[in-house]
Prior knowledge:
It comes from Chelatococcus daeguensis. By secondary structure, the protein is α/β, with parallel strands linked by helices.
Amino acid sequence: MQDSGPTPTTPTDRRRWARRHLQPGGWIAVLVPVAVTAALILWAPMPVRAVRDITFDSYQRLSPRPYDPTLPVRIVDIDDESLARLGQWPWPRARLAAIVDRLRAAGAAAVAFDILLSEPERTNGPDGDERLAEAVASAPVIMSLSLTNAPGEMPLAPKAGFATAGDDPLKFVPRFSGVIPSLPLFTEPAAGLGALNWVPDRDLVVRRVPTLMALGDALVPGLASEALRVAQGASTILVRASNASGETAFGRPTGIAAVRIGEVTIATEADGALRIHYAGTRDERRLPAWRLLDGSADTAALSGAIVLVGASAAALADVRATPLEAAVPGVDIHAEFLEHVLSDARLMRPDYAPGVEVAGLLALSALAVALALRVRPLVSAPAFLGLAAAVGAASWLAFSRAAMLIDPIWPLAGTAASFASAIAIALRRTEAERRWIRQAFARYLSPEVVAVLSREPGRLALGGETRPITVLFADIRGFTSRAEWLDARDVVAFLNTVHTPLTDEVMRHGGTIDKFLGDGLMAFWNAPLDVPDHVAKALAAALAMQAAIGRLAPALAQEGLPPLAVGIGIHTGPACVGNLGSLHRFDYSAVGDTVNAAARIEQASKIYGEPILASGAVVAAAPAFGFLLVDEVRLRGRGEATRLYTLVCGPDQRDAGFDDFRRQHDCAIEAAIGRRPSARELLDEVSRNSRGADRAPLYAFHRARLAENESVSKG
Length: 715
């Protein structure tokens, strides 16, 4: 068999051979998705962030933060019923003052207005504004302001002081250039000033709330942050940024690490925002404004609490989207911020998360590609799905156990793309291997065996291995004399006529054609595939081959050719099988003592006139077949004597009469082999048995040998 390049004699060689038939673009298709996905993870463009946010939102919906009603955070809610009972918005400032008075009387630690009071009251004149200003001055009230990007100046300094450690936080927080404040009449006596601003994502979902913002060169706390400061009576907010003592940044300005307000430390993301683990809208945290004002509300929970005054009424349209809900009153988000902080909840996307995701992408891709290239798709595909499930579970555990947000989607997307490319390569490589197997074995294996090997190339061990096999040699008797009176073309036609049915029977019985030897052939069983009953299959093939030769007799007679006989020799034992030859030409073949013995046994069949001879090892391995003892000889190249048997019939043709005859026959042959005095008489007796007629040449051989031995003894 010809092959270009080195012979693929092992599975590794076959893979190399297959790779030569694959385009380099296939490997690029494996690496490009990994490289592109890694870049997307590190760069994080909007589509990547959008998919990531959807994943993290789903985690929150699956496991929202448990709501704790004992947390000191409440909302005085200007709801639809309050508007129905007390009148449409805007309410008189005196009514807002009454709310402040009642909250102060209830012992609220801080009262934060999620309402921007930037214009004077129009209905009741200045008296209402002054009434509210007096109430603000008498209570720990935080007034709100709204930062804008319109040019403007801060009308007054923030109430909170700031201390910083590390890099300037102004480099990192959201920046604004203008402000819409509440009236100075309210802000001057207020205990605190806080910004109402959100920094929603592009899909307008509020996932993170800024603790601090910048107006020009001044830091401004968010409304909830300022309420937390006022409630604790703290004067200063401490901001820890990169390169502060204890913060690892290696000299690079990487962002804000934490914001400390009083006794509460808030771990933030780099821009100073807090990612909230939402509990969802809860009636338990709300107190309708009308009930507070008419005195029917239980105000015990307000003592020591941070109270947010805001609106849920549909007419006021102060709604935002969160990971849990599509429409949430803005005041609830401030409450969620405070509850998150006071409950010591944590939900962080660490700075190192992209690095973890890229490392996971590389490891997963390497594992997935190895699976695709080394394991069949029917196995590797479920294994990949299991791997993906494990990655998803790891991401979920990071969220649920450690409150860390590690994205599984993009690493899995990149891995899936590289896995799909690797599967395509594996399929092409497998087809290349199958094509090679079909080309290499179709001429001396049955189509069924070739089909098995092409489906399961891993069952081939082509580099050479020692294994038990059964070897059969067949030879056309008297071929030389036939060839003398046939021209070359007729000789070839004659050989093809004889070899075709012999080859068909070998393949039909699961054998491998090793080679054609002019007027003979060699075949073996149990390689390259395991054949548990290889001895029996070889014997059945031998009987079928003789029957096939018998069916050729009429056709040969019509052509004027003499009767045809084929001698067969069979032996079983260990042999070396594999691709034998040079780097440029090889055959799948077998070598060793077992092969040599089978060839010698076939040659001996001519001496005894028996069509099929087998060794004692064959008889021991297939006792169900009908054998008769022929002789005990020392084959050339072997030290010990070998017993030879003739194969008479298969298990189905063996009857009680045959067993009786076999005992009589073997007794006579044993006597002849041992040169016992009774040998001649026993041979005569068995010759008279009707079943012994076919063995006449064998009995004549032993009589002649006995006579020769007797003459030698007398001489």
